[in-house]
Amino acid sequence: MNEEKLKEKHKVFEALLGRKKEEFSKISKYQQEQLNSINEADLDQSEMIENQRENMMREMRTESQSLDHLKSEINYLEDFQSFSAKTEVGPSTIIKTNIGNFVVAVPEHLFGVDGNEYTGISTKSPAYEAMVGKKAGDKLKFNGQDVEIKEVV
């Protein structure tokens, strides 16, 4: 694999890490705003206010679970060290196919890097399970689509 492909791989992983950090920051900020709102709320003991506070606290617990999950994804991406050459689909590979480009790391919706679009998938995803071990030129059927692996980086 040439130096250019390794640089591309590094850029894709950096972009994915940046997106996850941005999402973490937005959720953290929102959660802090909610907490401040709860703390500043009128201490009226009416049932309506208590229900609002309970709802806000429930929402914050849900957001905290999201934050914990995002933090583990960020840690995974920050700990990622290997930008080595890969010839078959496995963890930390970029897979270019006729239906799109995938990065095997953490789940993420479509994102762009240098004019190319990628979708993040985990090693637990059905797409990964269908492609693991495949090489450039291999063909498979996934979700009723014919998929050709054009390149593995």
Describe this structure in words.
It is a single chain. The chain has 153 residues and is α+β, with helices and mostly antiparallel strands. It is 50% helix and 22% strand. It has helices spanning 3-40, 47-79, 126-131; strands spanning 94-97, 100-104, 108-113, 116-121, 139-142, 145-152. A hairpin with a 2-residue loop joins strand 3 (108-113) and strand 4. The protein is elongated.
What order do the helices and strands come in, and which of them pair?
Blueprint: H1 3-40, H2 47-79, E1 94-97, E2 100-104, E3 108-113, E4 116-121, H3 126-131, E5 139-142, E6 145-152
Parallel strand pairs: 2-4
Antiparallel strand pairs: 1-2, 1-6, 3-4, 5-6
